[in-house]
Amino acid sequence: MRDIALGLVALGVPRGVKLSVIGDNRPRLYWAQVAAMCLGGVSVPVYQDSIAKELAFVLNHAEVSVIVAEDQEQVDKILALKDQLPALTLLVYEDPRGMSQYRFPWLRSLQEVEEAGRRFGAEHPGRFQAEVEKGRMEDLALIAYTSGTTGNPKGAMLTHTNLVETGSTLMRAEDVRRDDDWLAYLPMAWVGDSLYTMVMNLMVGFTVNCPESPETVQRDLRELGPSTVLAPPRIWENMLTGVQVRAADAGGVKRMVFDRFRAVAERAEILRAEGKSVPLGLRLQHALGEFFVYGPVRDQLGLRRARWAYTGGAPLGPDTFRFFRSFGVNLKQVYGSTELTGLASLQPDAEANPTTAGRPCPGIEVKIGDKGEVLVRSAGVFKGYFKNDEATREVIGPDGWFRTGDAGFVDPRGHLVIIDRAKDVGALADGTAFAPQFIENKLKYSPYVREAVAFGDGKPFVAAMIAIDPSTVGSWAERRNVAYTSYADLAQKPQVRALLREEIRRGNETLPEAQQVRRFLLLTKDLEADDAEMTRTRKVRRRYVFEKYASVIDAFYSGQEQVALVSTVTYEDGRQATVQSTVTIEDVTGAMAHV
């Protein structure tokens, strides 16, 4: 970090630099961020899979002057945008492969920067420490851009105080140890990764491990067996899907053993969650299950050594949550937001529950405001949105309370319960409460459902758009000799529609009658962040989806059996293409056809 910082000084980069990193999780990209902070600068990490339009907005808005890119692919992205980035003065790359023919005066390798820093440091002893000593706790350290569910993302300004105090709060609330192993695989632009991989690592001193590549994360997770884990709901859902698929593909005896001990684990977990004692016979069966099923499954997932695991960023379905708890994973909910430096509440080990977000952490105040909105006040509340004072005033009151935008309440035990985004909570035509995320999580418990969007606010019943999981549905179709050519073709097979109809019916059995899904259709493509349907953290951009699929919503509630669907595909460079198709709308009624 010292060499990188002094190398930037040697190349004429001024104090207070705004430095961005783009790429997969790599040690030197983290070092570059802290190097900028050592110079009184600000880190502005961006999502490595962002399309050109998104990158240009964030880099311009944040006035980034130095970018550290992982490799040739990321350098090419920036080169294509160079004319749109007037503040950019230096582009640095870490991996030199494929870069030998690139010749620009403002393009340097990270090795060159470090070598320049070593020379500068030898000529100017004490300069690095002098730069560090100029820093103050109230200085800006990080601009973390929000997920942008309702429009362009906003840059949340986080100070050193925000980061250090939130790290200290987490250390008081959780068992974080110096000998912990951590796998840094989440996007560096997500505030949760910045908090744990950078801030907590520097404060505690545990070991951070970076995956070989995004494609090897699951293998690396198993090889490492980290002692602490943080993952968004999509990762936990994918893990569960993998377990369910392997169990379904196993031989008759293995499948019978798995199903038997899974039922034992769920019964024991429900009793524990309700505060009841587990009968001796059930405990003995559970001990056998640990040997034959639970331990091997945790080992396959890389979770055998995990003392605790967090799910955060969005609600996790109760069925998925209960599955991991029942198999011996100390999975707990954590709640926070970018503006809160990623932390507000978490669940103690003995109080993990799929229906709450845990207790407010020590030193963090939570109260419920008008219309049930959750308000938070803490040392982690951000300084404000960069270059957006109006938006800042809308969410931070004069008394320091931050309006989260989430609807919730505090239960009798003192746990915070998040219902949904306040703006998304509504009611059906008959007045029945409608919280779309709750229904969507029920649907996504199925291994065949990748994404779901529920409709119903102001409507007579609930309807849903489903994006199938192409891997699990594809395997299901191949085992039954159902031929298909593409995602769109697979999704519109009558057999697949019948399969998903039954999966939705099973989900409906766990929902109140008024909130059960009555009609659905299968999309001809997955919901994508590149197409603005999802954020980079896999949250549905509801306003945009409602506008884009307005014809589908009309068809659901006008009784139509088919609807014309126009799907837009966005390429990395911003080009778009459209695909037109006619999609069948299904009613969730009657017996399932033979599939």
Give a brief rundown of this model.
With 595 residues, this protein is α/β, with parallel strands linked by helices.
Describe the structure.
The chain is an alpha/beta fold and 595 residues long. It has 20 helices and 26 strands. A five-stranded parallel sheet has the order 2-1-3-4-5, sandwiched between helices. Strands 10-11-12-13-14 form a five-stranded mixed sheet. The protein has a five-stranded mixed sheet with strand order 22-23-24-26-25, sandwiched between helices. Strand 1, helix 2 (27-38) and strand 2 form a beta-alpha-beta unit. Helix 1 (2-10) crosses helix 5. The longest helix is centred in the middle third of the chain and has 22 residues, at 252-273. The protein is globular, with a radius of gyration of 25 Å. The model is unreliable at 590-595 (pLDDT under 50).
Give start-end ranges of low-pLDDT stretches: 590-595
CATH architecture of one domain: 2-Layer Sandwich
> How much strand content do the residues show?
15-25%
The computed structural class is alpha/beta
Q: Give the C-level CATH assignment of one domain.
A: Alpha Beta
Record keyword descriptors for this entry:
595 residues, alpha/beta, Rossmann fold, five-stranded mixed sheet, 20 helices, 26 strands, disordered C terminus
